[in-house]
Every structure is written in C-alpha cells, then in structure tokens.
Amino acid sequence: MAFGSTFATESAYAQWKWRAWCQDVATGSRGATFVAVDHSGRFVGMVGAVSWEGTPIIMGMWTRPEWRNRGIGRKLLKRQLAWLDKYRRGRPVFLYVNPSQAGAERMYATMGFRFSGFEMPLGHDPPAVVRQMVRRPRSRLKPRRARGR
After folding, report:
1. N or C: which end of the chain has fewer CB within 10 A?
2. What is the C-alpha to C-alpha distance for residues 148 and 96, in angstroms, rounded to an integer?
C-alpha cells in the first residue's frame, strides 16, 4: 500500500466531488494532474501535485503494474516537475513514499529527491509509514570565472 487512502474510501466519494477536483487541478495554478493512457484510452499512470500552504507536494504517483519499468513514471514526474517549475519556481518539492516501494524510491532519487528524515504513519494501515523526500531547487546562477591578472 503506497497511498494514504484505500480504494473503498476513494470510490465512496460522489462523482461530482471527483469532477470538481479534476476541474480544479486541470485549470488552475494551485495543482495539476498528468495522466498516461495506452492506445485504447486506458489509464496506465498518473501523477498529481498540490500546493499545501505554498509548499508543492507530489501526490498520487501511480503506474499500472504491467506498465512499470518502461519509463512512464519518470516521464510523468518530469512533466509534473516542469509544471511546478513554472508555477512554484524556487521552492522545494516534497513527496511521501512507502518504504515497501523500493522501485519508486530509486526513481525519485534519480530525479533529485532525497530523504528528509521525516516519516509518519500511513494512516489506514498501521504500523506502516511513509517517508518524506524533498527535491531542493537548483541554483539558477552560473558560476563565475575567477579573473586572473
């Protein structure tokens, strides 16, 4: 279990709530969700981001099991980070990962995320935890050459 919710909880929400949430993240600058679909239109992956009190948080990173290890998660995350760079430039980006998701941890690390040392209970699945990872903004300044005399 990687998420802080269950299918039963999420599927109990009314369809209007899901539509409103999708509309909000599809049209605003507070959050965004990107999806990958196969040739038949079936969802194969997704990633979302929200701004929580001004802090960008990656959420809902998911790839259908039979589509994993094909670079889909990486492409989705790169697109999400580009969106965040446009709307949240210069801010650290956070995410939470379940330690049982070793593949996800490795992928996040290759994308510049590092463990912060903070972890918290998963909520619906005690004693499971999620660990926080952070990607610090890169400096936009180019190093200056020392002038020799």
Report:
1. C
2. 48
| Residue 8, domain member (yes or no) | no
Sequence-separated (6 or more) residues with CB below 8 Å from residue 1: 98, 100, 122, 124, 125, 128
Whether the Cβ atoms of residue 38 and residue 64 lie closer than 8 Å to each other:
no
Strand order of the β-sheet with 31-37 is 31-37, 43-52, 55-63, 93-97, 129-135, 114-121
Higher local confidence (pLDDT), 50 or 147 = 50
Q: State residue 7's pLDDT score.
A: 62
Is residue 95 very low, low, confident or very high in pLDDT (cuts 50, 70, 90)?
Answer: very high
Q: pTM here? A: 0.75
Inter-residue contact 109 to 93 (CB < 8 Å): no
Residue from 97, 38, 49 nearest 72 by CA: 38
DSSP state of 123: S
In a domain, 52, yes or no: yes
Q: Long-range pairs for 19-23 at CB < 8 Å and ≥24 separation?
A: none
CATH number, domain containing residue 66: 3.40.630.30
Number of neighbouring beta carbons within 10 Å of residue 16: 8
